[in-house]
Amino acid sequence: MSEVVKLERHDNIAVVTVNSPPVNALSAAVRGGIFECIKSAIADTQVQGIVLTCDGRTFIAGADITEFGKPPKPPGLAEVLSLMEDSPKPIVAAIHGNALGGGLEVALACHYRVATKDAKLGLPEVKLGLLPGAGGTQRLPRAVGPELAVKMIVGGDPISAPEALKHGLIEEIVEGPASGGVAFARKLVAEKRPLRRLRDDNSKLAAAKADRSIFTNAVAAMTKKARGLEAPFAAADAVGAAIDLPFDEGLKKEREGFLKLVSSDQSKAQRYAFFAEREAAKIAGVPEGTKPRNVARVAILGAGTMGGGIAMSFANAGIPVTLIETAEEQLKRGMGIMQKNYEATAARGGIPADAPAKRMALINGVVGIENIGDADLVIEAVFETMAVKKEVFGKLDQYAKPGAVLASNTSYLNIDEIAKATKRPQDVLGMHFFSPANVMKLCEIVRADKTAPDALVTAVSIARKIAKVPAVVGVCDGFVGNRMLAQRGKQAEKLLFEGALPQQVDAVVTKFGMPMGPFAMGDLAGLDIGWRSRKDRGIKSEIADALCEAGRFGQKTGKGYYKYEAGSRSALPDPEVEKLIDETLARLGRKKRAVSDDEILERMMYPMINEGAKILEEGIAARPSDIDVVWLYGYGWPIYRGGPMFWADTVGLKHIADRLAFYAKETNDPSLEPAPLLKKLAGEGKTFASLATPSKAA
Predict the structure, then answer these.
(1) CA 502 to CA 29: how far, in whole Å?
(2) H/E run at residue 380
(3) What does residue 405 show for φ and ψ, rounded to 5 degrees?
């Protein structure tokens, strides 16, 4: 029938098996193969029941998203599903691994479903800025009821086989998919059980038809965090159509919603982000076949906020950790904070009730650097100064076992310098986690001059094991993320000297989709940190210094750029800050002017993109998409804008280069002059996406 789908007969049961590695995606060949095999099985008079199953590690794990945006190839998925649903013979989907997206939609068009106990079933299209486009929004509410359907479709997270059984999404949990499917099909035939077509079964919609708040409350809960996103709301509308409209009309509404989203800028950005994340795990300049070193145990130096968060990330993945402090008191405090964090998550239902004890049991807190001897990976998370880091790395030589990977969690410092403190620079690299480390997904992996290829591969592979998104970067001040952020910080500060207020700047940045503006972020981190660092370097920043001199250090003192009511983290504009800014400008003889929101947005974003162009030119990042991954997963860049370099392409590089040149002249700031690479691409009418050449960094 087809290369990728085969048909076999087991007495009176036909078994249709999809075999299209790695994930049996619904390519045109797979759709065509299923269509032909099902048609044959229906026509075969010997066949009384049909089982659809898959070879390899998973059931159909979704659509083939490489086909998106290309002319459709027949047969369409809807045509395949109609044939299956209308089959006069019972069809059983036998699921193992993941039945996701189009894969679950195929299973929903079957009359019955069985699954192995480790299977996961879900409709995650919303994460690509889409909604299920082959009946998922109409059949799933009929299978499990609108409440769970909203959770799965609007939230996009899969459910386990036991949960699917409990809610009637599957009929049975089986040992092996094919054998279990055949046994179940035989039972159906023997019992002459009627075919259950989900499209005809409205029984689970009745409660929500009678009381619409069942549906609206579920939607409100799932869209709470969907600020700025289109797909969750469109998906909720489609599920609502299942309650309000006959099946075929609901299907039509779903299709309209899908077609609108698939051509939207948001979905293009979200699909780009999906591929960018996968691309980031590929390391250029590493010999093919380089294997990671084995990491059975990790040691972390420093039990502060970062060290504790990193330890939790490893414990969450079941990897044992030795957490090391210099004194018993700090160790006790660090262990206590982790325990509290775990208990709070368990109380919210985020992890099972027994998880805190299990995870804490994996973290062995000890005093003294000599305890790193059995670790395969050592991560230093001590105070962020070169002198302290070098001292620690000097000692690592003495105690770390040969071949252990030695990583620094620095956010700015030169890894080449740090590596010089050891006799084994080949084992040294940076693993820059983001705060809070147990929550934030990014890990910037810094390749130093002498880092061995297998050490680099080890860091990337272990980052993925602990559910982080690794991005390999080169050595420079602030690496990728903080180096670009510094440009935004510089402009934010300058805008205050020109007449903008902190709340105006922050409002523009949050309206764009960032979780926080630069001034609210400064208050959260603590303004005294920058103040101390400026004093060390003999630098002045008149407004920020004046705030600190007035004891306004941010949230911890209840006052910074904003004021904070007792016990609240809500930033409230403060007339005192406005007065302090006015007085500072008067003292410096500066004139205020009205600054437009458009100017603020351009001066917040374009200098960062300019810095990104320099980072690419210097080979600090291998690809524009790696820069985007850093910003998406480390700094809360809105996923529906795809990352700064992707967004720059949508705005147009010529426009960005022209505006930067304009601001360089207007504000007398030569650092805003367009970078040579940006100028070149703008002049040639090209995009950052056109740069597909690998570089030395990654």
Answers:
(1) 56
(2) strand 377-380
(3) -80, 130
Q: How far apart are CA 34 and CA 17, in angstroms?
A: 8
How far is Cα 153 from Cα 168, in angstroms, rounded to an integer?
A: 17
How far is it, in rounded angstroms, from Cα 650 to Cα 602? 14
pLDDT tens digits, 383-411: 888 889 999 999 998 899 999 999 999 88
d(CA 219, CA 204): 17
Average pLDDT value over all residues in the chain: 94
* CA–CA distance, 511 with 21 (Å, rounded to integer): 42
Tokens of 121: 């079933």
The tens digit of pLDDT for each residue in 201-259 reads 999 999 999 999 999 999 999 999 888 999 999 999 999 999 999 999 999 999 999 99
Cα dist from 407 to 213, 297, 431, 439, whole Å: 52, 14, 6, 20
Cα four-point dihedral sign 311, 314, 315, 319: negative
What pLDDT, on a 0 to 100 scale, did the predictor assign at position 514?
A: 96
- Inter-residue contact 79 to 45 (CB < 8 Å): no
Amino acid at residue number 167:
H
DSSP state of 559: B
Mapped to the 3 state alphabet, what secondary structure does 22-59 carry?
CCCCECHHHHHHHHHHHHHHHHCCCCCEEEEEECCCCC
Whole-number Å distance between alpha carbons of 62 and 123: 9
SS3 112: strand
Confidence of residue 2 (pLDDT cuts 50, 70, 90): low
- 433 beta partners: 443
Q: Please state, as a whole number, how many other Cβ atoms lie within 10 Å of the Cβ of residue 594.
A: 8
Residue 22: asked if its preceding bond is cis (omega within 30°), the reply is yes
At 455, give phi and psi (nearest 5°): -70, -40
Q: Which of 343, 401, 337 is nearest to 373 (CA)?
A: 401
Q: What's the CA gap between 320 and 337, in Å, rounded? A: 18
Question: pTM for the full model?
Answer: 0.90
Catalytic site positions = 105, 125
The interaxial angle of helices 231-244 and 247-262, nearest 10 deg, is 170
CB under 8 A, 24+ apart: contacts of 418-421: 418/386, 418/389, 418/390, 418/393, 418/448, 419/393, 419/448, 419/449, 419/450, 419/451, 420/390, 421/389, 421/390, 421/391, 421/393, 421/394
| pLDDT band at 682; cut points 50, 70, 90 | very high
Quick check: 373 and 399 in contact, CB under 8 A?
Answer: yes
The Cα–Cα gap between 682 and 686 comes to 6
